[in-house]
Design a protein that fits this description.
Helices cover 31% and strands 37% of the residues. By secondary structure, the chain is an alpha+beta fold.
């Protein structure tokens, strides 16, 4: 069966996303059970909301949730990228890049000007995806969380720079970015 991405939550998805985050981050980075609560609380609140300017993308294969990403509204002009994860079973297939691309397209369609995200230092593949997608590093904060000391990093992207419209140059008949 093929891998597919859907935008609607189904029964079991919230638990699957929390479980996937908990298991993978414990195995790969040594996080403890408190990280699951960190994911579960806002994800549960997201699941109860009905906001057309927010969306989740769930990666599924053979009825198993193997990845996710979401866009959550912070204000009328700002959103936050949340719960980005692709299972090791599916890494290296371009799914992370596709998820970020679809999220950015959705954000532009909904007139967000800025998207922010928080990640932790050491997630090099994710960091490289963020940077190649136009996000820039803002700051980092070190603190004790999820069973050890971590350095959280914030990245943002200004969508206005990417939302410029093409305007026809009537003198030469070519399109120019304005």
């Amino acid at each position: 069966m093929n891998t597919f991405i859907r935008n609607s939550l189904e029964v079991g998805d919230v638990g699957s996303i929390v479980y996937l985050h908990g298991i993978l981050y414990a195995k790969e980075y040594g996080y403890d059970h408190t990280f699951e609560a960190y994911v579960a609380e806002p994800l549960g609140a997201f699941a109860k909301r009905s906001n057309l300017r927010e969306r989740i993308w769930i990666v599924e294969k053979n009825k198993e949730v193997l990845g996710s990403i979401a866009l959550c509204e912070v204000s009328s002009t700002e959103a936050q990228l949340r719960w980005f994860l692709v299972s090791p079973k599916l890494r290296g297939q371009g799914l992370g890049k596709r998820l970020i691309s679809e999220l950015l397209d959705f954000a532009k369609e909904n007139s967000y000007q800025t998207i922010s995200l928080w990640t932790v230092k050491g997630l090099e593949a994710a960091k490289n995806l963020y940077l190649s997608s136009g996000f820039t590093f803002v700051k980092e904060v070190e603190h004790s969380v999820w069973g050890s000391i971590h350095t959280e990093q914030q990245y943002t992207i200004e969508l206005n720079a990417f939302n410029k419209t093409l305007k026809m140059d009537t003198t030469h008949g070519a399109s120019k970015r304005r």
